[in-house]
Design a protein that fits this description.
The protein is of the alpha/beta class. 33% of the residues lie in helices and 19% in strands. The strands form 2 sheets. Strands 3-2-1-4-5-10-9 form a 7-stranded mixed sheet, with helices on both faces. Helix 4 links the parallel strand 1 and strand 2. The relative contact order is 0.16.
Length: 258
Amino acid sequence: MSDNGWDVGRHLRRMIFRGPLRCNLCGSGVRFRSVTAELGKTFAKYGFPYSIDDFETLNHRQYRCPVCGSADRDRLYRLYVDRFLPPDRVRRVLDFAPSPSLSRYLRGRADLDYRTADLMMAGVDDVVDITHMPNYADGSFEFFICSHVLEHVSDDALALKELYRVLAPGGRGIVMTPIAPEGSFDEDPSVVDEAERWRRFAQGDHVRLYDRSTLCSRIRESGFEVTALDSRTFGPETFAEHAIAPNSVLYVVEKPAA
């Protein structure tokens, strides 16, 4: 999206929501911090061919909460959890590469039997490789969050198959990655040069760059159904209040009931 498009979007947000911006993970009324200059400079340094504005679900101008550190996508996930995971029963939840601010909230809910997992991150409950998780039985969890993980994994098909296996029939999950414009998909796990990864995949530890159609097709190939939720689901005013970009999309997967 062009800079002009974002200017229009910001104008519309001001028209829709006139109250103070608020972080729904810590409850603070804040001025969210921008990553525009830092990320734009890095993209230019390595010759990444797309603009920051081209990414889906990235409010780089109002990205991070200065109080709890939440990113815009974390605030989006809480909107989903609060609306679609009511505290009507205990649910088994698995969170990969957890965001500290969202993790604190989820662990604090008495209705969630919540665990965190990652291969490299310190302090998680379970040290696991998402492409091979023998420590989890089939159908162990009723909900999972896999946010900005698949772009790091050499074989995303194996990761998605494992996510499908450990999810109970009828269970749901959030699967999110950076999403660039349609036709931008690129992958090569053999690339190890950090600068080349920045140039092709938008980060030095990524091995692929997704577009929407490729991400959704790979999710479906693993057996999941996938639904894309956006501001029509949560309301443009709610997006604006929590500094979530108008073009943000949440990908929710579901394992068909047996």
